[in-house]
């Protein structure tokens, strides 16, 4: 049997953690033949709740789960990890400005970036889920100078999956038949879900839908505001689908996509005019543990406008945390 992979999860006592941990331990993320050791981080007051979740993990008797570490110390949590899911983040509380949110999270992600830098495996795969995810990933990456910047990614996969399900509903075709969908930009309502290149059984989705008004005024707002709609309906945020998207993201990164496009937030290599290093959602393919941006796609005027909006938002967020990264 394979040696166990070490997987860190932060915010392990939270809602997303409660969906995520069981699926990782069940082999949904790294494969049904891949043993795992979970290294769970949360803040000190949340540790009793983490212990409770771990009791439930034990009671599942997952054959692949070879060990669990519970800690409030990032260095311990990230020791020798192969994968790190950074889920814990400071939620926006009442009366909190975006600036304060960036500040609170900046403090968390500088510390965690440094701890990854000093403790994780050199080829660690980091996925930031905690919001603002792209900027938190950028902060962590900037705080980890000894790691390859491409170790750090952020989660756009939930937006991608939401877009897939909307296109499936509109066309009446199964989600699994849709290929070449892309989501550009920030994990926020400004993200740009783009089905111009998408196909179903080889036929163009754009031609099939043939309704730019639906694209601009129904599809994009529905995908962009889906999180808020779920909070409104359920009284709680979208935790299970967020956990599922995190599983999809890491599984595809580790095990490959066989040429299929998926969306990942990754440090830009300058493609499509996105400044190098910016954590930006791009269509990618994955193979051999690496992602590659789908290059050479035509960006029309409508798309460019949408990409500019989401890029500007990211640039403003980056400006807001600049002082935290001053060397
Ligand atoms: P959740 O588990 O519901 O969410 C965690 C993070 O994921 C939030 O930043 C949330 O953003 C984000 N997120 C990204 N995508 C989604 C989505 N589609 N739906 C919902 N959330 C999404 O939060 P809880 O409050 O239940 O739990 C947070 C845990 O993190 C707690 O256990 C807390 O103790 C811990 N924590 C750990 C820290 C650390 O390790 N240093 C620091 C701070 C907290 P959004 O806020 O926008 O919903």
Please render the helix and strand layout as text.
Blueprint: E1 5-10, H1 15-25, E2 36-41, H2 47-60, E3 65-71, H3 74-77, E4 83-86, H4 98-119, E5 125-128, H5 133-142, E6 152-154, H6 157-171, E7 178-179, E8 182-184, E9 192-194, E10 199-200, E11 203-204, H7 205-209, H8 212-224, H9 226-234, H10 239-255, E12 262-267, E13 279-287, E14 290-293, H11 301-325
Parallel strand pairs: 1-2, 1-4, 2-3, 4-5, 5-6
Antiparallel strand pairs: 7-10, 8-9, 10-11, 12-13, 13-14
Helix pairs in contact: 1-10, 4-5, 4-11, 5-11, 6-8
The protein binds NADPH dihydro-nicotinamide-adenine-dinucleotide phosphate.
NADPH dihydro-nicotinamide-adenine-dinucleotide phosphate is lined by residues 10-11, 13-17, 41-43, 46, 87-92, 108, 129-131, 133, 158, 227, 237-239, 242.
Quaternary state reads single chain
Bound ligand species:
NADPH dihydro-nicotinamide-adenine-dinucleotide phosphate
Mean pLDDT value: 96
Number of helices: 11
Main beta sheet, described? 6 strands, parallel
What spatial form do the alpha-carbon principal axes imply? Answer: globular
Distance between the termini: 45 Å
Low-confidence stretches: none
What proportion of the residues is helical, as a percent range? 40-55%
Order of helices and strands: EHEHEHEHEHEHEEEEEHHHHEEEH
- Rg is 19 Å
The largest sheet has its strands arranged as: 3-2-1-4-5-6
Number of strands: 14
Query: How would you classify the helix and strand content by structural class?
Result: alpha/beta
Strand proportion: 15-25%
């Amino acid at each position: 049997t394979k040696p166990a992979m070490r997987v860190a999860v932060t915010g392990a006592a939270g809602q997303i953690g409660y969906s995520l941990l069981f699926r990782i331990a069940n082999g949904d993320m790294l494969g049904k033949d891949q043993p795992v050791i979970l290294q769970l981080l949360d803040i000190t007051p949340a540790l009793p709740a983490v212990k409770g979740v771990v009791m439930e993990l034990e009671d599942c008797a997952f054959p692949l789960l070879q060990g669990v570490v519970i800690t409030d110390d990032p260095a311990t949590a990230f020791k020798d990890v192969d994968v790190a899911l950074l889920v814990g983040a400071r939620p926006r509380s009442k009366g909190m400005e975006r600036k304060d949110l960036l500040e609170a999270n900046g403090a968390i992600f500088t510390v965690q970036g440094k701890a990854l830098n000093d403790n994780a495996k050199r080829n660690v795969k980091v996925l930031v889920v905690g919001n603002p995810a792209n900027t938190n990933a950028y902060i962590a990456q900037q705080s980890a100078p000894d790691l390859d910047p491409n170790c750090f990614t952020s989660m756009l996969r939930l937006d991608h999956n939401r877009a897939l399900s909307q296109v499936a509903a509109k066309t009446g075709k199964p989600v699994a038949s849709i290929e070449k969908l892309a989501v550009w930009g920030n994990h926020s309502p400004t993200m740009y879900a783009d089905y111009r290149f998408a196909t179903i059984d080889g036929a163009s989705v754009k031609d099939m839908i043939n309704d730019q008004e639906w694209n601009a005024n129904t599809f994009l707002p529905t995908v962009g505001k889906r999180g808020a709609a779920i909070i409104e309906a359920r009284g709680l945020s979208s935790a299970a689908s967020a956990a599922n998207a995190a599983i999809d993201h890491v599984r595809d990164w580790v095990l490959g996509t066989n040429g299929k496009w998926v969306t990942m937030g990754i440090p830009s290599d300058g493609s499509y005019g996105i400044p190098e290093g910016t954590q930006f959602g791009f269509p990618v393919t994955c193979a051999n543990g690496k992602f590659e941006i789908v290059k050479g796609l035509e960006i029309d005027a409508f798309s460019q406008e949408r990409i500019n909006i989401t890029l500007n938002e990211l640039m403003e967020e980056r400006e807001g945390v600049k002082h935290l990264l001053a060397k």
